[in-house]
TrEMBL record, chain A:
<dbReference type="GO" id="GO:0004693">
    <property type="term" value="F:cyclin-dependent protein serine/threonine kinase activity"/>
</dbReference>
<dbReference type="InterPro" id="IPR050108">
    <property type="entry name" value="CDK"/>
</dbReference>
<dbReference type="GO" id="GO:0005524">
    <property type="term" value="F:ATP binding"/>
</dbReference>
<comment type="similarity">
    <text>Belongs to the protein kinase superfamily. CMGC Ser/Thr protein kinase family. CDC2/CDKX subfamily.</text>
</comment>
<keyword id="KW-0460">Magnesium</keyword>
<dbReference type="GO" id="GO:0016592">
    <property type="term" value="C:mediator complex"/>
</dbReference>
<comment type="subunit">
    <text>Component of the SRB8-11 complex, a regulatory module of the Mediator complex.</text>
</comment>
<feature type="domain" description="Protein kinase">
    <location>
        <begin position="15"/>
        <end position="341"/>
    </location>
</feature>
<keyword id="KW-0804">Transcription</keyword>
TrEMBL record, chain B:
<feature type="domain" description="Cyclin-like">
    <location>
        <begin position="53"/>
        <end position="141"/>
    </location>
</feature>
<dbReference type="GO" id="GO:0016538">
    <property type="term" value="F:cyclin-dependent protein serine/threonine kinase regulator activity"/>
</dbReference>
<keyword id="KW-0195">Cyclin</keyword>
<protein>
    <recommendedName>
        <fullName>RNA polymerase II holoenzyme cyclin-like subunit</fullName>
    </recommendedName>
</protein>
<dbReference type="Pfam" id="PF00134">
    <property type="entry name" value="Cyclin_N"/>
</dbReference>
<comment type="similarity">
    <text>Belongs to the cyclin family. Cyclin C subfamily.</text>
</comment>
<dbReference type="InterPro" id="IPR006671">
    <property type="entry name" value="Cyclin_N"/>
</dbReference>
<dbReference type="InterPro" id="IPR013763">
    <property type="entry name" value="Cyclin-like_dom"/>
</dbReference>
<dbReference type="GO" id="GO:0006357">
    <property type="term" value="P:regulation of transcription by RNA polymerase II"/>
</dbReference>
């Protein structure tokens, strides 16, 4: 424009920043309260400029554009609501509804503080709400691609909301294979086997695998497949995630062409045989059923179907989510019709219903509450970095 | 049609009645009365043809897909319902819209490449990526970050299978869809209505005409056929070829708004009429005048 860009809204006129929540590769998230008649609490995501200390407009990153467009388009009770997007002086702010908790924090509270399992009905409600949000995304041709406990928000009213669409993409008629453009997708522990084996055209089924992993983690309070990430080598080619694949095989056993007909067509198929060589554990996998029974026992869920246990239906659901073949894996729609949800009492739309457990509030650091001029993102700070609650390294690689 | 169009921001915020669209534009012109009077503009469709040609010129060396071109054209059309064109540098808006559309349609181009191509094509007055970057903020802000555009191409692909279009018919329908971006139709009708219009025209017109500009006369024939659709239901052997009959039967039984299809057809006829009078220089000069006056 001749006269330059003039912002119509100013973040500081509309919101009072309470403090800093987290940071990641994308930028920083702040907690805020409404100003001038806006009521309530908000989470404001401030995008990092492409280059640090950027004083010029240099074009908005493709992932930020995607997230802005999807957040504006999508609206569902189980997807974090976007209040508005503010473009102000070379910065982009997305204002979200605020959620007091997330699954990572809830799991951590049970594992570290409470030292007891998450009530079975809480898990059922969480999963049911999560799948409804996911069904909505998939019906709207949107793959999330980065589902993990830290990205699943829970409000103080027990509503589950899928958050962080930073890696989400539309999947109808991809102009290019969905593989190109993004080097790495989905935090490695929740990454579907077809992605580990180098699939070029993956599908919404990747999100259902992640839901399976999250279900397992809610039950056992630790990640079911906790692999170590192989770093990119200097040639920037994507390495085979050997250790992650190994963790999966140790429990599920080797995938077979009988169960997964397109297995041999996977680019990294050849890696599987070398994986098995010299690793006797892979020939005697634990088996998902054993894993599940152990988990119920250790966490004192009563055997058999009851309100207090995920029961045998829970195992069947988990098994069908952690299905190697993406074409056989349950869809969000089918998962919602699973006996796990349809037998016994109906899942509540408040995941805290009937539970007396009090979860701690989200930690907010008040050291940094100047959203406009605060030190540039990426600088090391004392606030909580992304994913740090139980000492996890940030697994997501920067998009190229 | 994908279920999501009905809940889309395109349907909720960017589809107008003809009256509302005229009203919006009038309001905009009123607010810039002296500017509007000082710089007369050519027919909006001529302007659109010029824009489309410029985008094509820029996109060709970069091998940018048609879908991104279509999205860019929709952004530009939406943008100019909210910002008076004489307040802008249209070439900068075009380059920026293309840059943004490429990101949305998953075929991103580097901002430097876009700038270089713009300068190469137009000897453009803007010479810094920050100009495009800044214009991107303006564009997104005016579009309220509503950047997902539903195009008729996807509906056409579905219809194509259903009616087993020949290669020629399909490419004719495809180019009719391309042409509709030169009109206000993307702001007036749902993408599947456009796709059906394109399909009918492609089947009714024997795709013998070469070149992608259709003859108005041919389209008028198609229109005649269409207005007979209502009667055709009861008509006994009006002499339609079987494939056309199948299409007409389907139309009569479907819930497709025939009125809307007729309106789209008329809009296209009138586009092909005014196309004959298109002169690039006239449009280019008209734009240059107000751009220069503000420099």
């Amino acid at each position: 424009m001749f006269s330059g860009y003039h912002t119509k809204k100013r973040v500081n006129e509309r919101y009072k920043i309470v403090g800093f929540i987290s940071s990641g590769t994308y930028g920083r998230v702040y907690k805020a309260e409404g100003r001038n008649g806006r009521v309530g609490e908000f989470a404001i995501k401030k995008f990092k400029p492409d280059k640090e200390g950027e004083l010029q407009y240099s074009g908005i990153s493709q992932s930020a554009i995607r997230e802005m467009a999807l957040c504006t388009e999508l609206s569902h009770p189980n997807v974090v609501h976007t209040v508005e997007i503010i473009l102000e002086e070379k910065c982009i702010f997305i204002v979200f509804e605020y959620a007091e908790h997330d699954l990572l924090q809830i799991i951590h509270h049970h594992n570290q503080t409470q030292r007891q399992a998450i009530p079975a009905r809480t898990i059922k409600s969480i999963l049911y709400q999560l799948l409804q949000g996911l069904l909505y995304l998939h019906r709207n041709w949107t793959m999330h691609r980065d589902l993990k406990p830290a990205n699943i928000m829970v409000t103080s009213a027990g509503k589950v909301k899928i958050g962080d669409l930073g890696l989400a993409r539309l999947f109808y008629k991809p102009l290019h294979s969905l593989f190109t453009g993004d080097k790495v997708v989905v935090t490695i522990w929740y990454r579907a086997p077809e992605l580990l084996l180098g699939a070029r055209h993956y599908t919404p089924a990747v999100d259902l695998w992640a839901v399976g992993c999250i279900f397992a983690e809610l039950l056992s309070l630790r990640p079911i497949f906790k692999g170590e990430e192989a770093k990119m080598d200097s040639k920037k080619s994507v390495p085979f995630q050997r250790n992650q694949m190994q963790k999966i095989v140790e429990i599920l056993g080797m995938p077979s062409k009988e169960r997964w007909p397109l297995l041999a067509a996977m680019p990294e198929f050849g890696q599987l045989s070398s994986l098995a060589a010299g690793n006797p554990r892979l020939h005697r996998p634990q088996g998902l059923e054993n894993w599940y029974q152990n988990c119920l026992k250790n966490n004192q869920y009563p055997p058999g179907s009851s309100v207090d246990s995920p029961g045998p239906e829970g195992f069947l659901l988990l098994q069908q989510l952690l299905e190697y073949d993406p074409q056989k894996r349950l869809t969000a729609e089918k998962a919602l019709q699973h006996p796990y949800f349809t037998t016994g009492e109906k899942p509540s739309d408040n995941c805290f219903e009937g539970s007396k457990i009090k979860y701690p509030c989200r930690r907010v650091s008040s050291e940094d509450n100047d959203i406009r001029t605060s030190s540039l993102p990426g600088t090391k700070r004392s606030g909580l970095p992304d994913d740090s609650l139980i000492g996890r390294p940030a697994k997501r690689l920067k998009e190229k | 049609m994908a279920a999501n169009y009905w809940e889309s921001t395109q349907r909720k915020f960017w589809t107008f009645t003809r009256q509302d669209l005229a009203q919006e534009r009038k309001k905009l012109e009123e607010s810039e009365r002296s500017l509007v009077n000082a710089f007369p503009m050519p027919d909006r469709r001529h302007l659109s043809i010029y824009f489309s040609n410029q985008l094509t010129k820029m996109a060709r060396p970069l091998a940018i897909r048609q879908q991104a071109m279509a999205t860019a054209q929709v952004y530009v059309r939406r943008f100019y319902t909210k910002v008076e064109i004489r307040r802008t540098n249209p070439l900068l808006v075009l380059a920026t819209a293309l840059y943004l559309a490429c990101k949305m349609e998953e075929c991103p181009q580097h901002i430097r490449i876009i700038l270089a191509e713009a300068r190469h094509c137009w000897d453009a007055s803007f010479n810094d990526i920050s100009k495009i970057g800044e214009c991107e903020f303006t564009l997104i802000s005016e579009l309220n970050s509503q950047l997902i555009v539903h195009h008729p191409y996807r509906s056409l692909a579905e219809l194509q299978t259903q009616f087993q279009l020949t290669q020629e018919e399909n490419s004719l329908a495809w180019s009719i869809i391309n042409d509709h971006y030169l009109t206000d139709l993307p702001l007036l009708h749902a993408p599947h209505v456009i796709a059906i219009t394109a399909l009918i025209l492609a089947v009714v017109l024997k795709p013998t005409q070469s070149g992608y500009q259709l003859h108005a006369a041919g389209v008028a024939n198609a229109l005649q056929t269409l207005s007979n659709v209502g009667n055709a239901r009861n008509a006994e052997g009006p002499g339609f070829p079987p494939r056309l009959q199948k299409l007409i039967d389907w139309l009569a039984e479907s819930s497709v708004d025939i009125e809307a299809v007729i309106e789209c057809t008329q809009e296209l006829i009138s586009l092909y009429h005014v196309w004959d009078d298109y002169q690039e220089k006239a449009v280019k000069d008209a734009i240059a005048k107000f751009v220069k006056a503000r420099d």
